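Note on ligand handling. Small-molecule inputs were canonicalized before submission; formal charges were left as drawn, and no protonation-state enumeration was performed. Where a ligand contained multiple stereocentres, the stereochemistry in the source SMILES was retained. For pyridoxal-5'-phosphate, this procedure yielded the string shown in the input block below.
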Amino acid sequence: MKYTSTRDNSVHISASEAILQGLANEGGLFVPETIPVLDVTLAQMTQMDYREVAYEVMKGFLDDFTEEELKGCINAAYDEKFDTPEIAPLTKVDDAYILELWHGKTIAFKDMALSILPHLLTTSAKNNNVKDEIVILTATSGDTGKAALAGFADVPGTSIIVFYPKDGVSSIQERQMLTQEGDNTHVIGIRGNFDDAQTGVKNIFNDKELKQRMLEKGFRFSSANSINIGRLVPQIVYYFYAYTRLLKDGIITDGEKINFDVPTGNFGNILAAYYAKQMGLPVNRLICASNENKVLFDFFETGRYDRNREFILTSSPSMDILISSNLERLIYEVTGKSAEKTLDLMTKLKEGGVYEITPEEKEKLSAFCGGFATQEEDKDTIKRVFDETGYVLDTHTGVAYRVYEKYRESTGDETVTVIDSTASPYKFARSVMEAIGEKTEGVDDFELIDGLNKVSGMTVPKAVEELRGAAVRHNTVCGADEMKRQVEVILGI
Ligand SMILES: *Cc1c(COP(=O)(O)O)cnc(C)c1O
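Structure output:
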């Protein structure tokens, strides 16, 4: 199995090299040259637990890992860090099946991939004779930073530095990061916004003199960003897992097609579902749910991607995105794996903010269907589902749930549908409590959490409980222009 770049077909590298490198040199994304086939049947998978399914799904994509190495990575990732042995449980809510992807350390779906990425990365380093300490640099607007910190904490051979906008994250998110344990973790608030943090990190990555000095001292940078295939491949697993649980429970028959409905931002999660379909998972429709930043909805409707619009801050912030990076991998597919055409479209996106695919290319998107929900609809849905079923959706899953309802109303499609739930409602307790009609004004975060516990009866996740008494371990704040200096101080170079 080799990986090539969406912008340069002359690239042929192994999985571990792709994981180490993250992004291709010309800015393209790594994609598998062929889609592996499974060695086991779906029926056989019904007898396997999450880790066993993970091994069967991932081994074809990561074929330069030995069985022992890959199983080692899987076992180190999907263990008691998750608060349920199922790892990704399915819950029936009304007539939909909710796939809860938030039982990991930071109660967001990012844990599904960031729990294993550090192990894939260190194994990749070992197999490529990279002896340097891997320094993960990340700019975060909230969720990714904490999930990456938790994933890399105390992983030998790595350290992680996270920059976040000091006044640009929620107080729970900030507390989650500042109390992070692990001798190799570093968290720095910057005086500036997320774009400043992101630009600062990019500048550090591109600083050749710094890179040289780091290599001399035995360090190299890497990224835990969602475009790394080491984050994408682990996400394919839970689509097979969900299907085979439904099969095991007799809800579907072997080979029956189902729909997946995914609250989407950077297009990583739903792209993993598409890869699962290409591997032979019986999928009817992939429903791409957006909030008011509905660039993807418009794209699936018209074939025209247009980021020139107002950026709307919503109550589902992890979906507030106008450039969905992973869509490039799908564009590569629909252009018939043409690096030339993909590069051309991505250049248009970069320069003018717009590109358009041809009608023939658009036809190849027929597995996908876009939908969106406004903040008002999201809020109403959370309340209605709670009132009718007692189940509490977070604000991202609320968007997906509403999109699912609209999809059914407009198409009449009665296919069994799995809705990805990407965050625990406790992560967005303020918005959720407001949606279900509880008082939130002047109420502090932990009171809201206790209130949510009282009205819903849902156990407060350990990740939240731990925050209450946790000591703040990080307190560095710097200007956006001092980020490089901070990195030098941390690494002692
Ligand atoms: C990251 C995230 C998403 C978006 O996932 P993508 O893979 O970027 O499309 C949705 N919901 C939550 C809660 C997230 O953290």
